[in-house]
Design a protein that fits this description.
By secondary structure, this protein is α/β, with parallel strands linked by helices. The protein contains nine helices and five strands. It has one domain: Rossmann fold (3-Layer(aba) Sandwich), CATH 3.40.50.300. Helix content is about 60%, strand content about 15%. The relative contact order is 0.20.
Length: about 190
């Protein structure tokens, strides 16, 4: 089974490229945000615990996130693979994901790092704010999210490189070309 991690800065197209892989290969897709919302909505024990953290404005502990992802992952084991979208975000989370997969006899097949110029990212996110009415996509908040990405998530590049699973894709203005490059890479694993 293929286990694909897709990551990049906010606005880099993780959802767009994940959708292309789902369509092409029939992979299952795990988005951490979606999992949290579904667990909370379903009123599961994990969802209730997560909601308490969220309601206090606190970050959800890594072990709780891993437990949620493991629970969802276990329901997707029959398919051709799983895309982890937006997770891991830190080296600690990457190590926890690696351990969770190893416990199931699996491993990370490939990590897709989406590299996009920061000016393009800002423009995308501000446009998304207009289209979707997202108040969290304003310039000041976006800059804070970029800072969090560069301080917490960006170090994953070296970690995944050392693990031997890193593939990088640089956006050069042609989304379809990048989709084809990503599909070609995933087809080769």
């Amino acid at each position: 089974m293929d286990n694909i991690v897709i990551f990049g800065a906010p606005g880099s197209g993780k959802g767009t490229y994940s959708a292309a892989l789902v369509e092409k290969f029939g992979y299952n897709h795990i988005s951490t945000g979606d999992v949290l919302r579904e667990e909370i909505k379903a009123g599961t024990e994990l969802g209730s615990i997560a909601k308490r953290y969220i309601d206090k404005g606190q970050l959800i502990p890594d072990d709780l996130i891993i437990d949620m992802l493991a629970s969802v992952y276990d329901t997707m084991r029959e398919g051709p693979g799983v895309i982890f979208d937006g997770f891991p975000r830190t080296i600690v989370q990457a190590k926890a994901l690696k351990k969770m997969l190893q416990e199931r006899g699996e491993k990370i097949s490939v990590t897709l790092n989406l590299k996009v110029n920061e000016d393009v990212l800002m423009e995308r996110l501000l446009n998304r704010a207009k289209i979707e009415g997202r108040t969290d996509d304003n310039e000041a908040t976006i800059k804070k999210r970029f800072n969090v990405y560069y301080t917490q998530t960006h170090p994953l590049i070296e970690w995944f490189k050392k693990e031997g699973v890193l593939s990088e894709f640089t956006f050069r203005g042609d989304k379809d070309k990048m989709i084809n490059e990503i599909i070609d890479k995933v087809a080769s694993i």
